[in-house]
């Protein structure tokens, strides 16, 4: 995949993450805690997958911990 296509795909994932985050905030304001928590997890997963894709890596799975742990050391948060 070209760099341009990869970055467009990463942007698409990040936009979906933002939409999930915004929807989760709206649900939280309505007292829908379980649904808000689910969307918060989804937002985190999609944001991490956007990072993986932007780096040219192939994200796999749904575990936030694994998606963070398996980032290349130079890309992992401090």
UniProtKB/TrEMBL annotation:
**Lineage top rank: taxon:** Bacteria
Report domain HEPN positions.
Answer: 14-78
Which PROSITE patterns does the record associate with it?
HEPN
What name has this protein been given in UniProt?
HEPN domain-containing protein
Q: Which species is this UniProt entry from?
A: Thermus islandicus
Question: What is this organism's lineage?
Answer: Bacteria, Thermotogati, Deinococcota, Deinococci, Thermales
């Amino acid at each position: 995949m070209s760099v341009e296509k990869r970055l467009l795909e990463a942007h698409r994932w990040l936009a979906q993450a933002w939409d999930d985050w915004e929807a989760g905030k709206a649900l939280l304001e309505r007292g829908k805690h379980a649904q808000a928590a689910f969307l918060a997890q989804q937002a985190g997963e999609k944001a991490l997958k956007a990072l993986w894709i932007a780096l040219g890596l192939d994200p796999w799975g749904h575990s936030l911990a694994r998606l963070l742990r398996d980032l290349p050391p130079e890309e992992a948060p401090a």
